[in-house]
Amino acid sequence: MGTARARAAAIFATPSTVRVEDPVIGRVQKVRAVVGALTTFLMIWTYGVDGGWSEVFEDGVTKVFLAPLVLILVGPLVIGGFILYVPAEHRPLLRSRLRHPLKAVGWYLGIPAGATAALVGTLFLARFLSDVSYVMGLLLYLLILVVGVPFAVWLVTFLVFASGAAARYAFNTADVHASLPAVLTTVLVWVLNLVSLGDGLPNGPLAVKLAAMLGGPLSVTAVSYWELHVLRTHYGVRIRG
Predict the structure, then answer these.
(1) Which of 44, 110, 174, 196 is the most buried (most CB within 10 A)?
(2) Which residues pair with 49 in a beta bridge?
(3) When comparing pLDDT for 126 and 74, which is higher?
């Protein structure tokens, strides 16, 4: 588990010369996340939700893996618009930095895809060898069991940590421009909010339903706007500068 976490951090949370690591911004983001989680918990505890706590847990797990996939789908549109928005003389530099998020996306998709392909290929090979030699096929199946099961556990653990890190650092898009993660986070939270509307809202008054539907995206948008303000005023990071 430790190696999976370390590998995920090495891919998606590596420091760079472009990314701005401000401790105040980090603390505000953590406070917003904790307050948002507590508020959601209190609303569900007070008014309940269709499907119960199991539905809440499943929805949370789903969002952990859904967020990176939404970023992969929506991110190119946002990044393309971002690059078009900056002055023309800066666009070649930003395009040259796209290799950083592309590399992160490649790792995120490539590791599970490669593992799946290796497993399927090995199973076909074991089946073929079983027809030729029962002993060789049995040995290969045992090898899959001994090596494959621990690797499958590592892979699931890696994907959990990688999904969280990929969503938090927006696939290293800060390496393209320090303002990009804040912009992408805002878009991501609104898209996820629209996707999750079908899962139902807490029961209770209309005000509670509106708070559950809009509270998270609006608070994330406010924090992201404030983050852009801090980057501009304290670090001189301007989208069109």
Answers:
(1) 174
(2) 202
(3) 74
User: What length does the chain have?
Assistant: 241
Give tens-digit pLDDT for 144-187: 778 778 888 888 888 888 888 888 888 989 889 999 999 999 99
CA dist 235 and 239 (Å) reads: 12
For the record, the structure tokens of 12 come out as: 């998606």
Residue type, 241: G
The rounded distance, in Å, linking the Cα atoms of 230 and 241 is: 15
CA distance 92 to 114: 32
Can you tell me which residue has the tokens 């800066």? 90
| Residue pLDDT, tens place only, 23-58 | 899 899 999 989 988 888 888 788 776 666 676 677
Q: From the CB of residue 16, how many other CB atoms can be counted at a distance below 10 Å?
A: 14
Q: Is 213 in contact with 39 (CB distance < 8 Å)?
A: no
Residue 68: which of 158, 159, 152 has the closest Cα?
159
What DSSP line would sit under 44-57, residue for residue? HHHH-BTTHHHHHH
